[in-house]
Amino acid sequence: MSNRLKMVEKELLFSLFKEGWSSRKINKALKIHRKTISRYRAEWKREQASGLNISCADGPPPSDSVPCQSVPPKCPPEGVAHFQLPTGSESDQLIVSKSQAAKFHVTIHQKLEYGQHAQSIFQDLVTEHDYHGSYDSIKRYVRQLKQNTPNLYARIETSPGEEAQADFGRGALVLQNGIYRRPWLFVMTLCNSRKAYQEAVWHQDVETFLNCHAHAFAYFGGVTKIVRIDNLKSAVLQAHLYEPQLNPNYLAFSQHYGFIPIPCKVRTPEQKGKVESGVKYVQNNALKGKRFASLEEQNNYLRTWNKNWASKRIHGTTKRQVEQMFQEEKAALIPLPTTPFEFFKIGIRKVNALDSHIEVAGAYYPVPPKYMGKHVTLHFNANTIKIFYADKLIQRLSAVPKGHFHPDKSCLPEHKNYSQLRYLQKLFDQCEQLGPAVLKWAKEAETLRKQAAYRAIQGIVTLSRKYSAAVLNWACQKSLDRNAFNYHIVKEMAEARSAQLKVQQEIQFIQENELIRSPKEYQSLLSGGD
């Protein structure tokens, strides 16, 4: 069944026909389907041809009266007050609506310009303007207002060497294991000259993404100050309007090459419109309808096409040859780094609370003791270990073979920073201070028992806290005489010697006691006896 308009809508439509409005303009203003408009336009033309006029203010004329003149009514028909003829340019036209939101048109329009969304606008209208309608009404009105208000985008002109834009699209079909598959197409475009680099790859992982950047910079012979990217995980771990979190590998890569990475806002491809257009240009011009036997074949084709066609074309915006503009821009690029970027893996380790070391790929690396028990972030590969805490680099060490401890322990305290030889020499120095017998016992114990004697020697040194040097030298000499190099034997001998010396000190000849008479008493007794 065909769409039939209400009488008030039909009246408004006929008045717009008389004003000379096109079907397209009416469709944008009233949201009436063009086929319906065309049908009513034909009806209006038939009535005009027959001299009829349905727009008389006083209703249809009697059969014997003269037809009314074709003029708009002085007053709108009853019930059509909510229909307002758009005035001015199409961008200034108000939405024709029965919605309660229409009375807040100016306020809603201002809030949209400030970047507020429908839910926020609804909340403000309820609290600030005593709005009693529904949220759906505001939502529909905002949606219609956005449709009637086209977005205006500003063209951004960039200076030479200022910015490049990178993005992925889909490449042409490539035969892989007997099946045609579509790889990814990486494109980086210099915003000033529109010179571009293209490469087909199978993956969008971090390492591939960084390699594509490195190949593009090598192709350009330099680096731009800014690289604008999309929010893919290879570059951005967490998208955010104000502070996006970049992938650590991509951040380190940008620091190595000297450019500033700037992610676009989410769902705003127009912020990297030059590379978006560049991807479509490659897809439609170079790769449309083509198939390749291998990925290498497609990349060889892209290099030839870029050299012979893309670089020699006259760009539609700049009206100049791309290659010519690139030669002018090339001098403004940042020079390439002298060393290649080393890709690294990322991990998290807890610093050992006993020796302040962490384990990486089976090897052990020291960490400053203040981080003991805390979790640190690692960037590591086959050559280098970087240790971070709270995004701050706290240690950078070269990699050592599996099962080894890193020899550089400068971050540890002096009394914990000993190699095996230094530790043994320290024990001998302490034994020498205790006496010759202790030092001789320690050296012979180390010769006989090797590393197993270290802790026994340390135990003998610790006994000096309880026993004197003389006692320890006596005990060690007795152990040497017996050819006994055991900590417990030396300790038992030291205990026995210490007890013996204590008894000797306590046994003394007692001269006076209450039970013993003094010599004077004996003398008096002897004198009285005479």
Report a brief summary of the structure.
The chain is built from 17 helices and 16 strands.
What does this protein look like?
- There is one protein chain.
- This protein has 530 residues and is of the alpha+beta class.
- The strands form 5 sheets. Strands 5-4-1-6-9 form a 5-stranded mixed β-sheet, with helices on both faces. A 4-stranded antiparallel β-sheet has the order 11-14-15-16, with no helix packed on it. A 3-stranded mixed β-sheet has the order 3-2-10.
- Residues 53-97 have low confidence and may be disordered.
- The chain has 17 helices and 16 strands.
- α13 crosses α15.
- It has 4 domains: 7-148, no CATH class; 163-330, Nucleotidyltransferase, domain 5; 345-416, no CATH class; 420-506, no CATH class.
- The protein has helices at residues 7-19, 23-30, 34-50, 105-113, 118-129, 135-148, 206-220, 248-257, 273-286, 295-310, 322-330, 420-434, 436-449, 454-463, 469-481, 487-506, 519-529, and strands at residues 163-170, 173-176, 179-181, 184-190, 196-201, 226-229, 236-238, 245-246, 260-263, 291-292, 345-350, 357-360, 363-366, 375-380, 384-389, 392-398.
- It is 42% helix and 14% strand.
- The radius of gyration is 47 Å and the shape is elongated.
